[in-house]
Amino acid sequence: VLGLLVWALIADTTYHLHAAYGWVMFVSIFLWILTVLFFVTYLLQLQLKFYMIPWPLVLMIFNSVATILYLTAFVTCAAAVQPTSWRQWDYNRRAAASFFAGITMITYGASTFFSFRAWKGLGSNAATSQVTDRA
């Protein structure tokens, strides 16, 4: 949802006049599509059919790359916002897109952390952390 907000806010401005927003649009749309594809894969449990793929590792790599790409998109978008724009609504939408790009970057960063824990097997719950070898 956050990535959708970023590209919807940028798409509603005159982004084609500024080359920096082309990068932000590419990052936000590309990662939004890939995120939806991963979501559908897990929703339909297709990862069970492709058991030879190390899904925790794939998700960790995807989330870390998405975090780095959104970092560049956030910095680019925030640096390109001009408060003296002749179109006030463009300024508001671009500033909001910068904010949501930052939030999306943080969200992908948190997902990277949890993907790393899942990849290393550090994520456990009450059922898997029971001690059974008591003497």
Automatic annotation (TrEMBL):
The chain crosses the membrane at residues 20-44, 56-81, 96-116. Residues 1-120 form the MARVEL domain. Belongs to the MAL family. Coiled coil: none annotated. Forms oligomers. PROSITE patterns: MARVEL (PS51225). This is Plasmolipin. It is found in: Apical cell membrane; Myelin membrane. It is a multi-pass membrane protein. One of its GO terms (molecular function) is structural constituent of myelin sheath. It comes from Pterocles burchelli. Keywords: Cell membrane, Membrane, Transmembrane, Transmembrane helix. It comes from the Eukaryota. GO terms for cellular component: apical plasma membrane; myelin sheath. GO terms for biological process: myelination.
